[in-house]
Structure formats: structure tokens, C-alpha cells
Amino acid sequence: MTNERNIATKIIVKFMFFLMALTLVGIAWTAPAENSYISQAATHRVKEAGVESPVTAVLIHFRGYDTLLEVTVMFLVAIGAMAVGTSKEDHQPSLLIAPDEKLLAKPMIRILLPVMLTVSIYYLWAGAKKAGGAFQAGTILGAMGIMLFLAQKLYAREKESVLWRILLVSGPFTFLTVSFISIFFDNAFLEYPQSINSQLIFIIETMVKISTGAIFCILFTRARSLSFLEKTQ
Amino acid sequence: MSHSMIFPVVVPLFSAFFIFALGNKVNLLFLLFFSLSSLGSVLFLLQNTLSSGPLKYHIAGWGAPLGIDLYNDGLSMVWMVGTSVIFFLILLYSHSYWKSKEYPQKIKNAFYPLVFALWSGMNALFLSSDIFNLYVTLEVLTLTAVPMVALSNKKAAVLASLRYLIIAVTGSLLYLLGVAFLYVGWGTLDISLLTKLVTPSPLSWGALALMTIGLIAKTALFPFYFWLPPAHSQAPSPVSAILSALVIKGPYYILIRFWNTIFLNIQNPMIDYLLGFLGAIAILWGAFQALRQDRLKLLIAYSTVAQIGYLFLFFPLAINNRNIWEIAIVFALAHAFAKSALFLVAGNILCLYEKDTISQLEGSHPYLGPSFFIFGLAGLSIMGIPFSGGFVGKWNILYTAITTQQIGWILVVILGSLLSYAYILKIIKYSFSQKQWQEKKKNPITFSMNFTALLLASISFIMGFFFLSIIHLISIGSPFGE
Amino acid sequence: MNPNMLYVMAGIVVLCIGLEGILTSKVWIKKILGLNLLGTGVFLVLIAFGKRSGQECDPIMQSLVLTGIVISVSVTALALALLQKIVSFGSDSKEEKT
Questions:
Q1: Res A94: pLDDT
Q2: Can you tell me the distance from the alpha carbon of A152 to that of A174, in angstroms, rounded to the nearest whole number?
Q3: Taking the domains of chain B in order of start, what are their residue ranges?
Q4: Cβ contacts (< 8 Å) between C52 and chain B: which residues?
């Protein structure tokens, strides 16, 4: 009996979600077919922003404030993960399950690391013209850190380290500082002076990239810092 | 262009970064410096707003619709001043609290940056004039509040914080879908432009429904309240105070703002009545549950569930009577001050004997005299005793219910108030008992812990005397129409 | 019919599946997966709305989604950190089920 009732409830619940999907599709159907005025404005005013890719223009210039808050959000989650996290100091997960695999893993890392570094720098550089940018580059940087961690080249630590705190905070901090300083040069908040526009953005993007990489390493390991030195007992 | 508008966002955010980088070196001096400058940034904006009226700021100089605008009128200003004072006092309290309870350094290192980031996020939320930017600030609120709940480092706390995270993010994503509908329909994300453009259509109704559901889930209105009591009661006490007093008010502010801007032209009284009805259930259910609890912090958390109900009674009352929103804000602020004081008192009690079981408070008044006094003072506002901040709210609910012939709400308010007398007096009665206390004293309650809680409680009480000046401040820029 | 409406519909279906997972599933990891599905669905709707007619893609929508994805990644990371913390406490009670 209860089983049948359970199935009946499940079917009713599923039907309700189906109705919800139907309603939402019905609403979406009524959407006007024209792209909005501001999307055209965004496409046309890209040149004013001094970059070629419209998406980058929106992310850094038109809606840079959102991006600033977004970088802050990532930083906050890293703080949360550090505070909550169970550190893996005792049982570090590893790619190297059998001793033989060291033969494979080590050369692989040796080949992959420089390639990944190059790709991540390329993404940063490509951001001005096409899809790419600090976040994508930082993700690859983070992946490098995680790979080193899994291969036991980097070790998770419970100890606070000034270096890692600064690594985590440098991206959002640089972003905020640069965008704030511009108000002393007769510009609005987040408006970069025309003459050194691209240099400032390069500095911000680089720092955000480094921070993003560090944040991903912390999120993965949930340690308070990472170190190249093996812990001596 | 005056840059005073960005300071309430930038200064606390800088503080968060500096405090994080300082790590273990943070002491009272640093905290005072950063919290005073954050408070100062808000007061500076207040002074500018008082002298020059509502302000608009084009971030990066683009201006809406292409860029993001900040907009500050009386509505956002009052919220910002209220929250900043509460943040400031809770930060002072928390410094003594962590010290007194000997919390591990790890917790402090996470708590202070998160609080300052939350402060900045709330100011950003109040100032934003862009519906997508509001989504981002909502996520800043969520992602600071959730780790703070987990700081207790108990299994129940971490479970509560995970449940909170899932509900809060679901709410934000539903809100985001609403943003998509509005953007597709009218091609802009700016609130003031949308107010002019939005017309009744399936898209705007869909956005209204999605955004309302998402935001009331985050405010913890009745059917979505279940995450609130565990999260607010399991968190460390200063965190509970911040969550109950401030964080849930963020989405509520957005609802009020949208109700008076974007959704003004597409309003349907049925939705207002539905929200009022849910609020009525929340008042009775929350107060009833509060009465049943034997843990002080759970009692206070259920009291929040009930008080949120009152906030939603204003929706049906505001049909054709938009000025009542000003009272809603006074009520919400009075609740914020009173509730933070209550949670800080609970923190004092937890500090003294590591538990907050109500029935074991018998005979504790020689040690907890000031705490009981503060609890009573804040309780006056929660109960709605004449001339407190809560009284102004409840009186105006009754008055408007009569003048607009919605008599049903009167019964709810009276019943809810009676229940709130019961649960506040349930605690106060222990200050009169004659018995010897059974529990052992653990940690001392310092002067600053009582003092900050007392300040918060007194503000909530005397708010009833100067609520007209608050309303005068709210009416800058007339957010609720002429 | 505009082919992009197909993506909008797919997004809506995905987000409804995610919502169902969050609301009805009793296992935390499934709830977190549901949250991810809900997010992905919403982002798919946003992206698909960004290109409705034969014009260029809407860069605003794309950057909104990029911001949203980063936030979604952060949320997932935090949720998993919390879940792992819960697991590390051991299952001395049946509290894991909602």
C-alpha cells in the first residue's frame, strides 16, 4: 500500500515539475525576437573601451563592477573553505598509487607543466581579442597546482602562511585598488585613465589570474597553505 | 560627480582584504580603525544625501543602460545607516566574545574578513540600481553568511549551513531566471529604466513570480522558513545576530524596492493578499514554535520567523496606500536592533555556562542580571509595548487594517503579540526566581559585551520616539511616490 | 520557429530537473548536483536568449553567464567542502538525511 502511495506521490510531483517547465516554456515563447538595444550599443561601443572582444569589453569596462564583486566572491569562498575545511595533511590523495607509476607521472608532469603555463599565459593575452581572460587562465594555473599536489610535489599545510594569504588576496585587492585610485584622477570608480588603460588592465588581469589559481588550489586541498617542502616529522 | 557613493562599498571591502592579509596580527586597534572608517564612510554618504537629496553614480562613467548605476535615496540610506551601526556594535561585541570563550585563532581569522565583506556586500545591495548586480550582491551575502554559520565547527552547524546554502542559492538562481525574463522582454537591467518600460505581459508576470519566490525563500517566509531556525541557532552568537538582524533583510529590501519600481505597474492584489496570508501563518506558527523551545537560541530564531511574518503583512496593507512602507522599514529596523541584542544576550549566557537550555536558567540572575535586563528591553520592542520601535509598526498595522477594511489581520496581530509576550516573559521570569543556581560558571561576561548589547536594545526601544525623523529621512527622493 | 528557442526549452527542462533534485532528493550530494543542474539550466536559458534572431550574439548575456558560472563554481566548491566536513564528523546519527 505505502509503496503504491509513494509511486503515486512521485508521479504527482513529477507532473507538477512538468507543468512548471511547460509554463516557463510558454512564457519564454512570448519573448520578442529582436536583440535588445543595449546589446547593439555594447557591440558598437566596444572601440571606446579599447579592446576588441565585445565580451571582454562588457566584463572589464561596461560591467566591471560585477566582475569585481565576482572576484571577491571567489576570494570569500576560499576563506570559507579554509575555515571549514578538513585538511588533507594526514592522507594526501595521490596519482601515484603504485610505485611504478612514478615512472609515468613524473615525465608527464615535466612535459605538461610548461605547456600548461604557456597556455595559461596565452589565455590571458588572448582575452583582449577573443574569448579568454584572467579567470580561464587562472583555472589552468589552479589545475597545475592540483596536479602537483596529486603527484606529491606540493604538500597541504594546516599552518598559516603569509605568502599564501597574500597570494589569495592579491587579485581582488589589486582590482579594487586600481579601480579606486582612478577616482583621484578625475575619473569615475573603475574607469581607467585612457593613456594607461591597457597596462592597468594587464596588471589587474595578471594578479586576478594568480589569485584564481591559488584559490582553486586552496578549494581543492582545503588546506591553509601549500608548500613544496615535505613535512619532516 | 561626487564619489561619496562608492565609499560604503569600497571601504569595508578594503578592510576585509587588509584584515585577511594581517591574519593573526589583527587586534582591537585594527578592528576599531577599520570598523570606524567603514561606519564613517556610510555617515559621510548620509551627510551628502541630507544636503543634496537622492544621488546617482555611473560606475566607470558609462551610465545605464550600458553600464551599472548606483542609486541612493532615503530608502537605501536608512537601511545602510541601520545595518552599519549594527555591524559596528556586533564587531565590538565579537572581539570580547571570541576572547572570553577562547575560540581558536582559525575562527577569528575567517570571521573578521567575512564580516567586513558582508558589510560591503550589504551596502552594495542597498545601493545597486541594476537587477543583475543585485544577483551578485545576493550571492556575496550568501557566500559570507554560510561559512560563518559553519564556524561553530559542530556537525549540526555544518549541516545547517549546507542546508542554508542550498536554499539560498536556489532562491538566487530563481531570481536570476527572473532577471533573464526582464532583460529579454525590455532589453535593460537598470531598475529606473525598467520601471518606465515594463508592461503587463507573460514575461513580466513570470519574472514577478520567479523573483518573488526566490526572494521570499531567502527571507525565510513561512513555507520556506525551515532552514532558518537551525542555521541561526547553531551559528556562533555574534554570527546569529548578524544573520537574524541583517542578512534576511537584504532580499526583503529588494522586494520592497521592486514592488515600488519595476512591479508597480503589473501588480495584482491577489499576490499581496497571498504574501500577507503567508505572513499571518508565519506570525502564529513562529511564535507558537518559539514558545515550545527549550533552547534560548532556537526560541530567538523562531521569534525571527514570526517577525518576518509581520514584515509581509505590510504587502496587502500597502495596496493603494504606499506610504505604509515607511512604517514597514521602521519596523524591520527596530526588529534588526532588538533581534541582534537578543542574540548577543544569548551569547552572554552561552559564554557564562556553555549551554543555553532555558529551564536551567533557574536562579542564574545574580550572574546574569544585566543580560536579563537587556533581554527585557529588547523584548519590549519584539512584543510591541507602547513607544518602542515594534509598537510603531504594530500600531500602524492595526490602524491601516481598520481604515482599509482588512479586519482579519487584526486578529493575527493580537494573537501573535500575545504569544510573543509569552515567549519573552518565559525568559524574564527567571530573573525573579529565588533558587540557587545549579550550573557552574565558565567564562566571564565582560563589560563591553553587556554594553554593546544594551546599546542595541536601547536603540530598538527609543526608535519609537523618533520614528518620525526616520520617516522623514526615508522620504528623501520619495521612493514610495509623492 | 527560431532554432534558438530549442535551446531555451532545453535549458528550462534542465533547470526543472535540477529543481526537482534539490527539492525531492534525500541525499546531499544529489541536492548539490541538482543545484548545479539548476544553475546550468538558467545559464543555458540566458545564453540562448542572447541570440534570438540572425543578429550577432548579445555580449551582455555572455558576460552575465560568465559571471554566473564563476559564482556557481564557488558555490559548488563551498557546498562540497561543507559536505566533506559533515562526512568527516562520521555518521553517528541519521541526520544526513534531511
A1: 64
A2: 31
A3: 1-156+226-257, 268-482
A4: 184
